[in-house]
Amino acid sequence: MRSVRGIVLGLAMAMLAVPAAAVQPDEMLDDPALEERAREISEDLRCLVCRNESIDESNADLARDLRLLVRERLVAGDTDEEVVDFIVARYGEFVLLNPTTRGANLVLWIAGPVGLIVALGVAFVYLRRRGRASEPAESLSAEEQARVDRILKG
After folding, report:
1. Are residues 62 and 124 in the same domain?
2. Is the pTM value of this prediction over 0.85?
3. Are both 78 and 13 inside the same structural domain?
4. Could you give the count of Cα atoms lying within 13 Å of 15 in the half-sphere of its Cβ?
5. SS3 content of the chain, % helix, strand, coil (to 5)
6. What is the mean pLDDT of the chain?
């Protein structure tokens, strides 16, 4: 019983580890070279419905439309860059799984490391000030110590 369950679990994990290609046979181009170019382009385009899946992996209708659009542009004679530029012009840079590091995106690329550096600086200053605050104060004078003793005795 245990070995059967282990085998089934192993097969299920193996199936999940293999990315599912959602490209349907009716979408594929007859020219193998063009189909290969279409697959390479599709791997770098984000499905706008599924977010972090490429259009090559997604079963969403919009992903299918984008795959067909990529293939139409290739058949029309566009270069790979022209196809990607066409898709980006229509859907914005969000459609790229690996966004560019130009323009407004540069702010997004820099914001993470800058935020980390600022947070580390704030933590360092906080810990230094906290360390200084915990240093023992000057000891009490004899008069102050006598007054504290009287207060504590009641």
Report:
1. no
2. no
3. yes
4. 6
5. 65, 5, 30
6. 82
